Amino acid sequence: MTLEIENLTKTYRDRSICLDLTLTEGETLVLAGPSGCGKTTALHLIAGLIQAEQGSIRSNGEDISRLPPWKRHIALVFQDLALFPHLSVGKNIAYGLFIQGTPQKERQIRVREMLRILRLPGYENRPVSSLSGGEQQRVAIARALAVSPRVLLLDEPFSSLDAPLRRDIRQEFLDLRLESKAPCIFVTHDREEAAVLGDRIALMDAGRIVETGSSRDMFLFPQTETGARFFGAGQVLDCTIERKVRKTGEIMVSSALGNLSIPCGSDYDPKRPLLFIPRDALSLAEGFYQEETHRVLPALFRKRIFEGERLTLEVEGPPGILLRVDAGLRAPIPAPGAPVTLYLDQRLLRFVKPATLN
Question: What strands, in cross-sheet order, belong to the sheet with 200-205?
């Protein structure tokens, strides 16, 4: 099963949505981006809840763009789950099968199978109001998968859960995906969730896909300013191109951090070259330094940012330039305002495209 979306467009008074995406069999594509960028509208266009003005949606090669929602064989899990409160767990899961005209005996078999997969055996006759938040999430996903959809769409289904439960449900979702070959689009604005769940990530901004890649590429090698900032992959600074070294292909730039060397193979926008400094290019550890490839920068320590599983130290290089440096959880913490030495690995520097030109 495949999904191909080409130039799918919807225009509103103050904004527009335009989608181009291709998904392969069994693939989970995470559609990520800030709130208001058009992610939910994109799902509704694909599902047929909103009619596109132009473009095409092809499922397994069949154009379904003009079909009503109930004929597209697309399952959508809403953010608020939209479970039927007056129906039992089993009847919620079987609802789509009932609409399809599946015989009752087959519906019962399918419901029991989904409950087994979701580790909810014996829940068939329980009212959905008696379930915990995590259990309701599972029932909503089971209802979507019970009809063996051609495409599975999920609109931030875990957003209402607390952090530990979200982590558990994410892993269960990954296990559940092994049961279905349907291509899946999962919407989230949570970058950790995007990295965990996505075979690929499509980053959306202002109604357009601005960048697509693997989780690793998005965090280590973003191609756009939007991607670098959204995923917290590092710092983006304006720079000026000084010259290109013919022998090595390196590009010499001047920036707020001084004169730097960018490895060959990194393209820049001539109108506004932007320097990207990945998080792992910076260190306060002296052992990180190599004379030929690193720059030494004086800095002042400003504050620590403890994120539970990661410790980040914020330092000020040149006046007004704040840089964040990853550190070990047991790393010593300087006093605020204390001078520190910052080591910069120039081999990891890249250019990114300006957000205004995406």
Answer: 62-63, 54-59, 3-11, 16-23, 208-213, 200-205, 28-32, 184-188, 151-155, 74-77
